[in-house]
Amino acid sequence: MSAIPVFAGPPLLGLNLRFLRDPIGMFSQARRDHGDVVQLDLGLAGPLHAVFHPEGVKRVLMNGRRTHRQLLRELLGKGLFTSPSGDDWGRRRRLLTPLFRAERLAAMTPLLLGPLDEALDTRWRTGERIDLATEMKRITVAMMVEATFGTGADVDRTAARAALDFLLGYVDHQLFTFATAPRSWPTPANRRYRTDIAALRRIIGDALVARTRRPGTEPTFLDGLLEHRAGFSDEELVDEVLSIFIAGTETTGTALVWALHLLSLNGEVAEQLRAEVDDVVGQQDPTGDLLRKLRVPRAAVRESLRLYPPAWALRRVLDEPLDVGGHVLPAGARTIVSSYVTHRHPDVWSTPDAFLPERWLSGEERHRFAYFPFGAGAHQCVGNTFAQLEGDLVLTRVAQRFRLDPLPNQPTGTKPAIALTPVPAPTPLLMPV
Ligand code: HEM
């Protein structure tokens, strides 16, 4: 057994400031300078352990416990996404799992295509630049609202979209800004949070009641929750909808910003994707069955998620000592794994920094935990197939209608927040196909 290398910071403060300002740079440096298991010195806040090698990631995710996400629970309620490991989490996981079965999701494709087409028809114009961050957020929010309520429901979609859009920004700000005004202060943002969360809860609650009276047949999230609700109160179901909203919107939206941006920079891959779409889908509306036959959009999304995983780090607490590659992490250790760093680990990936979707088409073998954009183990993302469906659909529909030209020499950095976002937001030029 060997001692765990320490990445030390200044006395008392430790690496805290660096952690707040540039966590990804700090993790990357930790691996480069200290190896695959590192103790990060957070000064008075106590140590945080970081593990980067796939085998170590596996051990941490299979053995660690996810703790409370206290702030998120206060802001959004006690749904699956904010629940700590344990019995209540298990009960919620069993409720949500059936909603994400592949055949159910494939049947949702027309519901998702509606808001996507609405955006492309009204706001995307050839010859103009498009702000991908704003657009993908609007589109994924609209798709989520549609997937939840369906077409038949008498729901104020505009209010639901606006409230969700605001809440995503508010939560980001609360979690990732160094100094925020206390939430009890009547600042404009705090007041709006209270009105919007109440409005959204009411919209979801009313739709639940309406659906209970007149059960629907659409494969929406709401119908799924009602079908499998055994023992769940209305209030708990509202929490679950909010949990899906928050876990599944910003993440997917950002993943798509990166995917479209990387495709705009890599014309050859974009052409390969377009050729496949032409061949398999032509000008038809993409359906679940057609999308399943496409390989390149899926590979492009996978590769973007490798380079820029929206959920760039996961935290766990260890209840027992854990041997990781000859280092023993003590019981109680707060531990972090970073998909961003492991996805670019030079021992695992060839040309780790290059965008090469073909690596997903060639049957290349690698460690199961070398790639975990959706997490792994018990808490693995319940919505990963839905996210992939949205990704396939957006890349396919956009390829049918537009070519994206990047802004020359546009620098792209990253801003770690709820999801890892590009800064500045890419604004490609829309060209005719
Ligand atoms: C590209 C898009 C997405 C990414 C990168 C992503 C990533 C993740 C990751 C890394 C986790 C594990 C969290 C942990 O271990 O603590 C997770 C969990 C979760 N995700 Fe996703 N997600 C995405 C899309 C979605 C969508 C579309 C939904 C729902 C419609 C969703 C719902 C959830 C839920 C409910 C959990 C909690 C699972 C549990 O704790 O059992 N996600 N997601």
From TrEMBL:
Its cofactor is heme. InterPro entries: Cyt_P450, Cyt_P450_CS, Cyt_P450_E_grp-I, Cyt_P450_sf, Cytochrome_P450_monoxygenase. Pfam families: p450 (PF00067). Heme binds at residue 381. SUPFAM superfamilies: Cytochrome P450. GO terms for molecular function: heme binding; iron ion binding; monooxygenase activity; oxidoreductase activity, acting on paired donors, with incorporation or reduction of molecular oxygen. Keywords: Heme, Iron, Metal-binding, Monooxygenase, Oxidoreductase. Belongs to the cytochrome P450 family. This is Cytochrome P450.
